[in-house]
Design brief:
single chain; TATA-Binding Protein; alpha+beta; about 30% helix; 4-stranded antiparallel β-sheet; globular; 4 strands
């Protein structure tokens, strides 16, 4: 298991490039809940995959899940901090975060 310490500077900018796949919520708890769900289940991946020009050619390893993934979020001084613990590799975490919240997140640390 790896713990990723993430931050989002401006929650109003925490939107993915496709509104149908993007995070829609307010607050660190909702953000953490959506991130955790994106890691535990494959619904975000399946919705993204269906939108690709050739869905059957999408690398199926991008759809791997971690049923034990958990995330918590809290408001810090000038940002939202999210702690994500998962067995998924960073390439999967990054892909799903980018779908959900675009490039508005920053990886602060890992353990």
């Amino acid at each position: 298991m790896t713990t990723y310490f993430l931050s989002v500077k401006d929650m109003s900018q925490a939107k993915g490039p496709d509104p149908e796949l993007s995070f829609e919520g307010i607050g660190p708890e909702k953000l953490a809940a959506d991130i955790g769900e994106a890691m535990r289940g494959d619904s975000l991946f399946q919705r993204w995959r269906a939108k690709q020009p050739e869905p059957d050619e999408v690398d199926p390893s991008l759809g791997v899940t971690d049923p034990g993934a958990r995330a918590t979020g809290e408001l810090s001084n000038d940002r939202t901090d999210v702690k994500l613990t998962t067995s998924l590799p960073m390439r999967i975490v990054k892909h799903r975060l980018n779908l959900l919240i675009g490039n508005s997140w920053q990886l602060r640390d890992t353990r």
